[in-house]
Amino acid sequence: MAKEVAVVVTDLVEDVEYTEPVEAIKAAGHNVTTIGFEEGTVEGKHGTKITIDKSIADVKPEDFDALFIPGGFSPDQLRADQRFVDFTKVFLAKNKLTASICHGPQLMIQTGLVHGRTMTSYLTVQPDLYYAGARIEDESVVIDGNLITSREPKDIPAFNEAVVKALA
Amino acid sequence: MAKEVAVVVTDLVEDVEYTEPVEAIKAAGHNVTTIGFEEGTVEGKHGTKITIDKSIADVKPEDFDALFIPGGFSPDQLRADQRFVDFTKVFLAKNKLTASICHGPQLMIQTGLVHGRTMTSYLTVQPDLYYAGARIEDESVVIDGNLITSREPKDIPAFNEAVVKALA
């Protein structure tokens, strides 16, 4: 059965961390809604234009089965806006599938809900997660129940496989 | 007496958080050495070209009286390189003047030395610092002994005043 997947993203996302997982999720038959500050277009670190389907103002977490947070410099900008923090918090608090790669977990730190979770992230964010109470594993993909995290672009194949399996 | 000030920076720094404090420090008669991954030029978020005087490979903390870390997306890239973390750690551990604005304190988290310090930073980094054990104040400039921190571009005048006073 097709699942509804929310992807939160803004400018300076790490391009392939958006494009490749989204392609894999769609190829597995699920629906992706790309959510940003406002409808329109944002641009990745390497110039990829990404269409924002819906503004964060116009979505509710209950409309989605899963959340995906790509990395790069996008998550740090999203966490400056409490609406993205609240949106993310619902997925973690209700134990809905939450997947993120690279800097994506920065957005989770602001929810206060990473304490005690087993996770990974980009190298630079690992101490932030550690101090926030997460247990860090330096693996290509770390699966803690409905929380799936990866470190960096080279982990994308393992990440996609885990996410697609979890959505099935 | 002129002080030697190290500034650590790379691409996507918040332009004015580099240019304006550097101008103020030089205007007060001090010497600035801009340090990056390698000699050459980097580019700020808004296109400012910044000359890197020295590679991190060619400097020692003991050659400097103070360290300044501008913000933007520069500090998160610097903290991926242990040489910048070790460089920063010496200033904090030896209680030398350490000043940073916006995302700059991200680089300090990796040193393990923010615990118990009173600081501020850009909004998004405040929880990271809190979890790392710092006490956060939401003020334009926070002075804790030789540690001076500010939040964002609008705090630059107060930041510059504090840094120039501390260098005097």
Short key terms for the protein model shown above:
homodimer; 168 residues; alpha/beta; Rossmann fold; two-stranded antiparallel ribbon; 6 helices; 31% helix; globular; Class_I_gatase-like (chains A, B); C56_PfpI-like (chains A, B); Type 1 glutamine amidotransferase domain-containing protein (chains A, B)
* Number of distinct beta strands of chain A: 11
As a whole number of angstroms, the C-alpha radius of gyration of chain A is 14 Å
Q: Name the pair of protein chains with the most residues at their interface, and give those residue counts.
A: A-B, 17 and 17 residues
| Alpha-beta content class of chain A | alpha/beta
Number of domains of chain A: 1
Shape of chain A: globular
Give me the oligomer status.
Answer: homodimer
SSE order of chain A in H/E notation?
EHEEEEEHHEHEHEEEH
Low-confidence stretches of chain A: none
* CATH architecture term of chain A: 3-Layer(aba) Sandwich
Strands across the major sheet of chain A, in which order?
A: 5-2-1-6-7-11-10
Keywords (chains A, B): Glutamine amidotransferase
Organism (chains A, B): Weissella sagaensis
Domain DJ-1/PfpI (chains A, B): 3-165
Protein name (chains A, B): Type 1 glutamine amidotransferase domain-containing protein
